[in-house]
Structures are given as C-alpha cells and as structure tokens.
C-alpha cells in the first residue's frame, strides 16, 4: 500500500468528502442490496470518530447528465441512516447552494449525502469547474470507491488537484493491499481461476497473471475457444473465432513462464440453456457434443480444480465455471466456491458473477477478500493504471 490513506491524514474537525460507491439496486424507493453501502461503513465511521464532518458523494445508474427521479440517492440516505443509527442529511444537489446548505447544518461527526453526481454531465467529462465546485465543499478528499477508480471522472480524479489533502479510504486501501500483494508478493503456490463467457473480456488479466501465477485454471464458456484451437469438438458452444491465435499465445506464454495451464476434462452439455432441458456428461473429446452447448464443468474437473485449490497458498477467482444461474448447471461453480471456503489459502474473489456464486453457495464469510471493484479490479489485475488511484498522493 504505497498510497496515503485516511489514517495518514489530519481530519479532526475537518470537512471530509468521501467518494463512495452507492450504486445500489433500488425498488419502490427501497434499497434491495446494501452490500456496497455496508462496505463503506468502516471509512465513514472512522472519519466520524475523528470528529470530521462527513460528506458522501456517489453516482447511481446512468442518468446521462439529466435529473431522473428514479435515480435519486434519497432512498440511500434513508437506508444509511437506518444502518448507522444516526440522521443522514440529504442534499438535493451535489454542488452549489443546496449542497452547502446541507453541509452547514451538519455538526462534527455528522453525515451528509449529496445527490447523484451523474445528474451533471460534467462529472463523467471530468470538467475542471465541476471538480472545483466539489472540492470547495471540503477540506479533505478520500476515495473509497474502488469500483469507479478506473474512470477518470471529476469525483475520482479531477477533484484531487483542487483539495488541500487527499488519500484512500479503508476499503480502497484493503483492495490495493490484497490485489497488489497478489501481483507483487503472493504466498505460493498462487492459483488463478478464470471463468466467464469470453476470453476477450479477460485477455489482459490472463496475460498479466501469467507473470505471477503458478497455476491457471480455465472454466466457463471461454474454455471452448481454447478447445477449438486445440482441435477438440465444441458443438454449438460459444467460440471467439477471432481469438484462436490469442489462446495459442496464452498457452505459449504459460509455457514460457512455467505456468501450469489447465482446461476442463469433462463437461455438462445440453441443447438449450433451460432448467428443464435434458443434459449429459461428456468428456471434452467426445464428438457427440455436435448439436449441443457446454454449460458447466464436469465432476472430474471440479474435483481436480478443488484439489489444486486445497494445495494452494493464494487463490484468486474471477468468473463462473458455467451457467450457474440455473441450478442444474451450477454444480461446478458451487463446488469451486465450497473448495475456496475450506482451503487454508488466502482467497480473493472478484467480479459480480463470482461474488453471486459464493453467495449462492453460502460461503461469503469464508472468503478472505471479496473485491468490490468489478471492472476496476479486472483492469488492475490486467496491469493497467487506475486514474482514481494514480491521482492519489503517495505516502
């Protein structure tokens, strides 16, 4: 963790603007999943404990610079107030008179939530005037929204050059610690499990991880592009024809870096992706897949992958092993989630589908670190610089 954190800053009695990620689902004015809100609580409570006046800024949805009643953060203010057991003032705008009026009503230790940043198109354009308007509300800026750190927006990057001091929140610090250690100094053996639909979505991540990992396990629909390149039957499974050479390059890089790259040895196939559809277990070289689609890894693969996870010291997982949303095709993904839960290794899970899978398996509390980053964690693991992190001052 080379970036300055909130604990390195003098925030006592100061107004602290914390960029949070409260982009949460809301139905009929009620928050239906508060995972991201709860993830920000340690930073908020730390700031309050230091006697700071806390100003929270977030986006919600994609209103494209327009005020949209169904994307207001008002319900989030109410939910946060219930979670914390203290009043949360809500400002009907994120800049200008409304924001300042709400802030003036707040006392040290108080909390104000600003209205949706993306009601202003200047936010995503990283417009200087908007950045300055946000900065004028606070003495200190803290970024605790890792999920938006890969975007160079006014509230994540532009604001930093206009505040007196800045640092990372506790959640962002934790993300940088775990993901940074994963790339720089992991406990070994280091195993990466990459799944999901397409190689194209994980190409940079795979290539970058090949410099660090000892074993790379491939699953999900992306495996069929590797199978096709190897001349194995894929039936009607998803194949990215334009990436066949890339998969060949990935296997060459794995060999160059002495990385064991493993693909499924058996799989579940079906004619239609439907819970009631008939399905069958085949080995991956069985040509009878011809008119069917691969939808899950098979039991032999599940067992092999689980054994490798058990022998690891660090495991990172991104992407399901199949169409886990349908129960009958979720066995491989859930078996892997349960293997992650019982291993003594440091386990890191990222990506919405992977997080949903460990939740479905009921093992969320058994995972060492669950990344809230989504696209940001993929870009970080892919070796890209994240604008919202790069702009923060070093220690």
How would you explain this protein's 3D organization?
The chain has 395 residues and is α/β, with parallel strands linked by helices. 34% of the residues lie in helices and 17% in strands. The strands form 4 sheets. Strands 5-6-4-1-7-8 form a 6-stranded parallel beta sheet, sandwiched between helices. A 6-stranded parallel beta sheet has the order 11-10-9-15-16-17, sandwiched between helices. A 3-stranded antiparallel beta sheet has the order 13-12-14. α7 crosses α13 (375-381), α8 crosses α9 (244-256) and α10 packs parallel to α11. The model has no long low-confidence stretch (mean pLDDT 94).
Count of individual helical segments: 14
Which strand order spans the largest sheet, edge to edge or round the barrel? 5-6-4-1-7-8
The pLDDT mean sits at 94
Most strands sheet: 6 strands, parallel
Q: In what range is the share of β-strand residues?
A: 15-25%
Distance from first to last alpha carbon: 9 Å
Low-confidence stretches at least 5 residues in length (pLDDT < 50)?
A: none
